[in-house]
Amino acid sequence: MLYGLYQSAQGAAANQRQLEVTANNMANAGTAGFKRDLALAGHYRPHADNTLGGMPSLSDLPGTNPFDLGSAMARMTGGNGLAATAVDLVQGPLNETGSDLDVALTGPGFFQIEGGNGEAVLTRDGRFTRSEDGTLVTATGRPVLGAGGETLTIPPNTARIGVTPDGTLSAGFADGTNYALGKLAVVVPTDPNSLVKLGDGQLTAGSLVPADPRQTNVRQGFVEGSGVDSVKETMSMIAASRGFETNVNLVKLQDDTLGRLLAAARP
């Protein structure tokens, strides 16, 4: 059997997955606070190192030269493929809006908001607004959480909102008085690899700790843009497309070669 046939098919599958990841990134090039996905390549172990359910590895299989499958396969690698996807946490560009309720994070970390099932989830999209009952909510209507896990409420007669770099909110009134409203929950995951996207700019992670104010600041009047560079993603898509086409052509070539070999072996 042609070993290269499987490696080419494996490569085509990896290219296809890379195209899917890149297409999703490009679709979110204009999404506030979006973090692009990274397609991580992995190298499969040589077949000699692999066992399936306690079965012997291919290097242990009997064979007769010059077609000794065991010794031949043991010298070949298992090929490359996409092992996983990860979230790229590179800082996105800050776009100034001037709105009191628009905030952006500089440095690592996420805002905490209430998810669809009532659990706390993460986001970098700081396009906040005030709901009809005064609750501070996201652009999709999810309540924004304070550092203690509580929702934050803005009084109806508030003239202006102040946000300090550590995320403390204050309400200013027409008579010149100011009142503290609470502090935005800004957290970082202890293990960035545990981040999982939920859609709508929301993520979840394992254990969380408060962000270090020396590394992370809240910027009022700004919104973080998407972390996607359209030019780089386009180049990545072109490279993956060419790789997919090449691997598919190799599969066809090797399949044709195998067909001719079998035809020649017939009596």
Automatic annotation (TrEMBL):
Residues 219-262 form the Flagellar basal-body/hook protein C-terminal domain. It comes from the Bacteria. Pfam families: Flg_bb_rod, Flg_bbr_C, LlgE_F_G_D1. Residues 5-35 form the Flagellar basal body rod protein N-terminal domain. Residues 104-171 form the Flagellar hook protein FlgE/F/G-like D1 domain. Belongs to the flagella basal body rod proteins family. This is Flagellar basal-body rod protein FlgG. It comes from Alienimonas chondri.
